[in-house]
Amino acid sequence: MDQKQFRLVHDEQPDRHVVYIKGELDLAAAEQFQRTVEPLAGDASKPLVLRLEDLTYIDSTGIGMFVALLKTRHQLGAPFAIENVPPKVRRLFDLTGVSYFFSEMNDASERIGGQS
Amino acid sequence: MKEHETIVQLSIPADAQFLDIVRLTLYGLAAKMGFSYEEIEDMKVAVSEACNNVVLHAYNGRSGDIHLRFEMSADALSIVIKDEGKGFDYKRATKQAASLSGKPLQDVKVGGLGLFLMKALMDDVRVTTKGGTEVRLTKFRHRGEGEHAHECISPSSVQEQA
């Protein structure tokens, strides 16, 4: 399996949407990401969780889309979490200052954990 | 031009589907020079950010190319990303280029993040706008630091291999 190939796997569980983001999330992958994840972001009835353990590349394109999702979910008052962030992705989150927003969300993910 | 510099050039259409080719090329050249995994990952993001700006802003939907020039010298790798388009407004972006740290969520705008990342991840960033935009990103080799240093391939040996 090509580690770089961008893939999304949507796992709709009874109590939440989980989206596994795999490979390289770059400008070429942006449209596919938005097409899949935006409708889920609009569903306030369930928490939305992005799982990043197999994400091998991200830049400001992907970070920007995560921040946009966070804003959407925040406006809807709906839980949102980003989980299993690989170290090199975490580093970019830290550098750009978005870790702060995503760590706030991790409180939400604990709540999600409590519900499941 | 500096002496003992090896140049590799690559031109791609200003289309996002070719950006992975840029990262693969960069990876190959930087690994040959002995840069660490982390340094290479940093450069991949910085170079992609410069290319993203060309794809999104340079040609206004018309077709055009991105010209990349990898300048490998004994102590540094410089990557020059050039287009012949109307140009990304780097002056304006420079004013916005900042970390989002400490801002309230509703005030967060991701517009300046690309340039911010280029500056944070590279040792030197120079932008020239004249008949298009030219971004020059440089990463110095920090010899003697880190365990990878003894595995460095000298530029002359790279030349011999080429």
UniProtKB/TrEMBL annotation, chain A:
Q: Which residues cross the membrane?
A: none
STAS domain location is: 18-98
| The protein, known as | Anti-sigma factor antagonist
Q: Name one GO molecular function term.
A: anti-sigma factor antagonist activity
Question: What family is this?
Answer: Belongs to the anti-sigma-factor antagonist family.
**PROSITE patterns found in the cross-reference section:** STAS
Organism annotation: Geobacillus kaustophilus (strain HTA426)
Which superkingdom heads the taxonomic lineage of this protein's source? Bacteria
- InterPro entries according to UniProt: Anti-sigma_ant (IPR003658), STAS_dom (IPR002645), STAS_dom_sf (IPR036513)
